[in-house]
Amino acid sequence: xxxxxxxxxxxxxxxxxxxxxxxxxxxxxxxxxxxxxxxxxxxxxxxxxxxxxxxxxxxxxxxxxxxxxxxxxxxxxxxxxxxxxxxxxxxxxxxxxxxxxxxxxxxxxxxxxxxxxxxxxxxxxxxxxxxxxxxxxxxxxxxxxxxxxxxxxxxxxxxxxxxxxxxxxxxxxxxxxxxx
Length: 180
What we know:
Blueprint: H1 4-15, H2 26-34, H3 43-56, E1 64-68, H4 70-82, E2 86-90, E3 115-120, H5 128-132, E4 140-145, H6 162-179
């Protein structure tokens, strides 16, 4: 929750007048406490952790939930059930890197919650050609950041900068939330 990426995005979105709350999944809390890396908890544990935070905040009716990568995936899996206002996913893990046939999209086909997915065009978890073949709900708005990787960082030769891609992502998120 306090990675440079999350810090920059949270500050940028908050700077647009949106209250931002971050939290950690249990496996990330363990990493922080022990210093040891470990596999993520099972999806059921991660989903319950997100449900608990939603409940602590008074329910989903006035919340936009989301996250980066796995956090966005888990948010997308609880969004409809929690009846949140909308959903934001940054760098969605559509499939494991190098395995576009192993999709993580079945629940996205029927998603009812209005959603924004911001994805880099070079994201190894889902590039435009991969994602174009997936059946996604019409509630999902997909925005691509040119030459961005999974954290939106472009190659130097692209002429783009990481800061510009992050600024673009923040603007997309802020505009999406304002319209929610």
